Fold this protein.
Amino acid sequence: MKRLFNVMLLALFIAVYLPHNAGAGEVDILLQKLVEKGVLTQGEAQQVGTETKEQVKKEISQGKSFSLPAWVQNVKLKGDLRLRYQYKHDKATGDYEKDTNIGRVRARLGLEAKVNEKILAGIGIATGSGDPRSTNISFGDYNSKKTLVLDYAYAKYNALPWLTLVGGKMYLNDTLWEPTDLIWDTDITPEGAVIQLNKNVNPNLALSMNLGALIVSADTSSDTDAPMAYIIQPQASYKFNDDLSLKGALSFQSFHNVKGHACSKYASGSNTGITKIGSADATGNYVYDYQMLNPALELKVIQPFKALGLNIETLKLFGEYVNNLDVSKGASGYSMGFQFGNDKIEKWGDWQFRYVYAMLGRDAVLDVLPDSDRYSGKTGMRSHEGSLSYGLGKNVSLGLDVYRSWSIIGAKAPETLIQTDINMKF
């Protein structure tokens, strides 16, 4: 009984006093001395040490530790490094063929700071050239130095439990939810402001809505106003049971004043008006605005093949559709696919396979938005994509991504793209 009392008293002393006055190493030294003197057993010392460290971590995460400055506790630093080998095979009219081999690197570093209980600020830099759809830098050019750009800079204000305001150059997933990159390349960081509304109706049903106003271009050279985008996306998530859930959304994405403006220098050159085909504007301006209606669904199953004795963590089935209401021909597109394996790649042996089939009409979406790897980001195409990720260790993974794409306008001009990646997160 006396030993138990001493252990409890010691644990209380370490948990309350030492985290504010000593480092983790000093706690370990003290515990080892107590083991040597027979006050604690090795097991008791280990238990007390573990509980103390967990308490310290909790206090630091809550910004309540006295042993670290407040600004250190309220700031989080994160980043990743990706090394890539890329092979692309193009085949155009006249049996013209071209093979391209490229080495690439992507480096990103981000900082999040808790300004106060309500406001979070985030700043990120990345390799890149300014292309909104890529933070890759290609090797070559006689070992030239590479450039860093501002990837994002935003503030998030949690005004109420059900209301969040986001402004600046934001993460894409703060703007809208998408199960595939049919419309938006995942590297894009939109610029503007978003209102997020969230409501948990019951333990199984959650409703949310994103309302956004985005600055597309500051170009005022024409007689019309500068292009803007307005987004509304109601969402619903329903949990049928512990193993089955469904998420759906219906977004309306309205790109105003694009018609008549010169195309972006980062455009793929595939929308009507850029390639100067058919009813194209001879000046190379956009011919249409883009009022896109976009329903999307994702079904998630936990341990889907348990009855067959297969230990596969998750299976996702997803799809989305888009239709540009301003256009009568080449106005629609869709994607569908599946993903199975581990939900996240975090350690050795984790794996994940994903397949997506996608089709986009020429004017279904603005051609500065879709995945830049899928047929070079063009519209007017069809594509198959298969990707496999495998964990090589904690925060390290190997990735293989293969695209097979072709044009649905004129000559097929098929393209095969193979990417092999080493991803490291920290």
About this structure: Confidence is low (pLDDT under 50) at residues 16-22, 276-282. The chain has two domains: 2-61, 107-345+354-367.
